[in-house]
Each structure stands twice: as structure tokens, then as C-alpha cells.
Amino acid sequence: MAFWSSTSVFTSKVPRKILFMFTLSLSVTYLFYSLMSCYNSLQFPLQENYGYPGRLVTDETTFVTLREKLYSTSFQGHTAEEGLADEGRPAPGKTTTIPDPEDVETEQRTEEWIRTDLSSSPTRSSAFADRTGAAEKEHQDFSPTDSDLRVNCTTSDYGEKKLPQAIIIGVKKGGTRALLEALRVHPDVRAVGNEPHFFDRNYEKGLDWYRDLMPSTLEGQITMEKTPSYFVTNHAPKRIHTMARDIKLIIVVRNPVTRAISDYTQTLSKKPEIPTFEVLAFKNRTLGLIDASWSALRIGIYALHLESWMQYFPLAQMHFVSGERLIVDPAGEMAKVQDFLGLKRIVTDKHFYFNKTKGFPCLKKPEDSSTPRCLGKSKGRTHPRIDPDVIRRLHKFFKPFNMMFYQMSGQNFEWELGEAAGPGAPRSSQD
Predict the structure, then answer these.
(1) Contact status, residue 114 vs residue 220, Cβ threshold 8 Å
(2) pLDDT, tens digit, for every residue of 245-288?
(3) Strand partners, 250
(4) Who contacts 6 (Cβ-Cβ below 8 Å, separation ≥6)?
(5) d(CA 356, CA 348)
(6) CA 395 to CA 424: how far, in whole Å?
(7) Phi, psi (5° rounding) for residue 45?
């Protein structure tokens, strides 16, 4: 009662204006501090929203969805066209859908960003791995391992760069380019377009450099390359054996006389000033002494070179292709090569037609192209006419070496029949 009575006395003496101003000041102050105390609570959701995009990309649902997309893309059916797509070349028949390069590149960058982001935080990476473990188990029966996926994501088609499982090692001007182009039609063959020359010229650069030259392959695909000079390089057999003892070797051979003429024709097109074939082939033509040191002739002594390879590889790992039969019956030779490589016979006679202008088979044009797939202008050159007596002497020189080669390889290539057919006539070559 005393308090209220004192308050009444105070309010009666203080003017009402002063009391109103005092009350208003207290109210404004209270409102100000109330707003300040709520500021942090109002700011927190904004911080969460600002960080949301980063959380969204690394969320397990998004990652699993991307992983599923990578798996589904990697295991689509592959047809003959895929073997040509990496080089921008057409191939016959219809094809499955190939991912758009821009989409592939985008997925690569996204996947790489995700992996980088996770690896930067061990705690988050570990926790995330635990959350996604169940999702990964769904793919174990039909998909690559997680490490394989990471390797695949670094390439243009989610494949992995591997060292070759097969090499076309020879011979120069035998038909190696024609064989390689036909093999690249096969969906399970991926091959380097250019000749790497690793085991004869670039060996010091190392296997990592060599592997990096290879195209990316998926499970079940074969990586290949061709360098015809390997066959005549002394240290190539040992080097290849050191890399892979179980590798498969393909040697395209051809009548050594016509091969030598084709070799000379190629050199002549680049150096018109060189001596004639007859001059280069003999040390002394009057005495009939053949110059076996001339590379065009030495390459054709197949038995000499094969002996070096047989010191490291059994015949079961070698396959010999007849350059002559590759022209007259490309499908037949391709069937044997596909069998040797353990491939399904997909490249057949429907893929070839004989080009009368060039004088050798070409791959048939695909439905979406107006031109057929033939070898370049450097192939199919007309051979210069060689003195028939020189041809006869060369056949006589090569005959014992050919017989030895037939025995070593277990195949009779019947090059002596070509001699009886009149070898002096101009010919053309597909390689």
C-alpha cells in the first residue's frame, strides 16, 4: 500500500508529457534489442541456403544417379561403327546410340570434381563411402570395380588405356594397313591409327608413354597397334616379350620379290633421283650377285627374321596373313585373323568390294556416307616395269629362303606360282 501510494504521488506531480516520452523511449529500446537478438536466427537459414549447392552435388543420391548413368553408358552394345568412331571414320551397318561428346565431357568433369571434392575431406569421404556402400553392391555383378570406374572416367569413352594384347609386327609393304583398317571395323578391336614405333625408335620413352598412345578400351575389347618395322628389328622380340609374354603377333607376308618392288616404288615416289631398281638390286649384275644388304631385299628374307622371334615366342602366338590372299579373298583372311584373336566373326565378305581402279578391296560405304572407305592415295601405286631377267634372278635368290620360311611357319604361300605367271608385268599394291 505504501508503494502504490508513493507511485500515485509521483505520477500526480510528473507532467504527463514527460511520462509519455519516457515510456516511448523504453518501448523503442526494447524493440531494438528484440530485433538484434533475432538477427542471428534470421541469418542462419540464409547461410544454409548459400551452402546448399555444394551439399547437393556431393549428395549420395546424385552421385549414385551419375554412377548408374556411367554404368549404363559403358555397357551399351557396341557395333562395328565404334571401332571407327574414334577416328571419325564411317563403317557399314546400323549402330547403337553413341553418347554426345559434349555430354561425355560434362559427365567427366562432374565426376572428376566429385572425386576431388570428396578426397579433399577424409572425414566426409569416409562417411559418404559408408552411405553409398549399399548402392554400390547393386552393381557388383555386372559392373567394373570402383577403381576401374575412376580410371574409366578419365577417358573419353569411360574405357581404360591398356598395353596392346596384339601387335601387327610386319611386314612393310605386305598389306598391314589394309589388315588394320579391316580389323578396326570390328567392335571389339581398338587400334592406334599411326605407327607408334615404340619397340624400335621410342623405347627409351617408357611403357607409360606407350600406353598413353593406346585408345581406351572396355572390358572384352582388344587393344592393338601395327608397326611393320618391328619384324626386322633385332631387339624388338626381346622387348615385346619383356612387356607381355602372352601377346599375339600378326605378320602379313607377301611374295618377297613383289614386296621389294612395292618398297622401291614407295621410295621412288619420294625420291625420284634414286637409281633404278636393277642397279640397287645387284652388287654386280654381270656376275649376278644380289645385294642382300639392300633393305628392300633384306626384309623379304622372312626366315632370317622369323628365327629371332621364335627364340621368344611359340608359333601358337603368331599368325601369318597372306598379302596376296588378303587382296583376292579378304573375308577369308579376316576370318582366320578373327579366330586367332578369339573374336567373333563379324567382319565378313559383306564389308568388302573390289575397287577396279586401285586393284584391291575396299570397305563398303556405310548407309550414311556417299563415299567408300578405301586406303589413301599412297596405296595402289602402279609398279614400274622391271626387267624380267632381274625378276627371274630375284625369285631364284629368294626360293631357298622361302622354302625355309614355309617350313618354319608351317604354311606354304606358293609364291613360286607367281613366278610362273609372268612377274615382269606392272602391278599395284594395297600397302
Answers:
(1) no
(2) 999 999 999 999 999 999 999 999 999 999 999 999 999 988 98
(3) 168, 319
(4) none
(5) 20
(6) 11
(7) -60, -30
